[in-house]
Amino acid sequence: PMKKAALEKILERWGELDGPGASAYGMQVYEQTGNPGLLRDALEGWARKDPQGAINQLASLGLNDRLQGDIRRDLVGQWTEQNPAAASAYATANRNTNSWGGLVTVVADEWSKRDPKAAAIWAAELPSGMDKRSAIFQAIRGWAEADLEGAAAFISAQPPGESRDTMAGTMARQVGRDDPAAGLKWAAMVADPGIQQQAVAGALVELYRKDTNQAMLLLQSSSISAQVQEAALARMTNRGPWWR
Predict the structure, then answer these.
(1) Which residues have a Cβ under 8 Å from the Cβ of 193 and sit 6 or more positions away?
(2) What is the Cα–Cα distance from 217 to 146, expressed in whole angstroms?
(3) Who contacts 113 (Cβ-Cβ below 8 Å, separation ≥6)?
(4) pLDDT at 1
(5) Number of Cβ within a 10 Å radius of residue 202
(6) Which of 15, 89, 90, 190 could lock 42 by a disulfide, CB 3.0 to 4.6 Å apart?
(7) Is position 210 within any domain?
(8) Nearest-5° angle of CA 235, CA 99, CA 109?
(9) Nearest to 232, CA basis, from 187, 167, 170, 189
(10) Does the residue 10 lie in any domain?
(11) pLDDT in tens, the chain (244 residues)
């Protein structure tokens, strides 16, 4: 392990000084052994100095989609630490709007560790898409864990619409784990019925699994419409994840 750690450090440093040379060596080792670790280290070193160059090199290597996607997410996360404005611009230009996750979520997650308000504002301003909702979820979740009151005040001040619905739905889940009644109040703020079903299920699912009767009482005494209550219950009782 010590030798491995030393080699990783050498490749990272080499990548910083000579990205093309280090990544060519890392690629050679990957082709011989099937282990992409040193290639990843070389590209991460390169990305400290030139993130765009490292990402362009990665795209040119002919790796399988999964490995390329994994390394690209790491590089974009690192880029966000260094320069969130540039990383967020890259992620915005390389979206997959039909996918939960993607590069905008990587940026939102990393950025929210340092400046959750900036991350939430950026995510909320993205054009519509599943990846936008995922980015908002990550930004608000990170913010709520660090400063619940700050996140709550920000969401309450947002204009109605998809972004606020997603933010309030995220809060319903975060708050509902410890206080399902408070979680349901956040769910009640959601206007879109589809997002609201998820928010209600997220707020109640932990309680529902422990004490179904208590969860039902809370739900029935809430201001959530009967139709959304039914749909949320179906999410919690059906097999498979409640959020799908």
Answers:
(1) 225, 227, 228, 231
(2) 31
(3) 142
(4) 65
(5) 27
(6) 15
(7) no
(8) 90
(9) 187
(10) yes
(11) 678 889 999 999 999 999 999 999 999 999 999 999 999 999 999 999 999 999 999 999 999 999 999 999 999 999 999 999 999 999 999 999 998 889 999 999 999 999 999 999 999 999 999 999 999 999 999 999 999 999 999 999 999 999 999 999 999 999 999 999 999 999 999 999 999 999 999 999 999 999 999 999 999 999 999 999 999 999 999 877 777 6
- The one-letter code for the residue type at 242 is W
Amino acid at site 219: L
Please indicate, yes or no, if residue 213 is contained in any of the structural domains.
no
The set of residues, in sequence order, having a beta carbon less than 8 Å from that of 115 and lying 6+ positions away, is 84
Please check whether residue 80 is in contact with residue 74, taking contact to mean a CB–CB distance below 8 angstroms. no
- Residue 220 structure tokens: 């029935």
Torsion angle (degrees, nearest 10) of CA 222, 223, 228, 233? 0
Distance CA 237, CA 195 (A): 18
Distance CA 6, CA 227 (A): 59
Q: What CA–CA distances, in Å, run from 192 to 76, 133, 168, 224?
A: 32, 13, 11, 12
Q: Please give the single-letter amino acid code of residue 61.
A: L
Distance CA 132, CA 96 (A): 9
Spatial distance between the Cα atoms of 186 and 188, rounded to a whole number of angstroms:
5
Tokens standing for residue 104: 């905008």
Q: How many domains does the chain have?
A: 1
| Residue 136 forms part of a structural domain | no
Q: What is the pLDDT of residue 212?
A: 94
